[in-house]
Amino acid sequence: MLRISDLDVAYDAVQALHGVSLQVRPGECVALVGANGAGKSTTLKAICGLISPKSGTIELNGSMIAAVPAHKRPELGIAYVPEGRRVFPEMTVLENLEVGAYNRRARSSRDKTLDGVFRLFPRLKERAHQMAGTLSGGEQQMLAIGRGLMSQPTLLMLDEPSLGLAPVVVEETYHKLSEIHKQGVSILLVEENIFRALSLADRGYVLENGKVVLEGSADELLNNEHVRQAYMGV
Question: What is the CATH number of the domain that holds 80?
Answer without folding.
Answer: 3.40.50.300
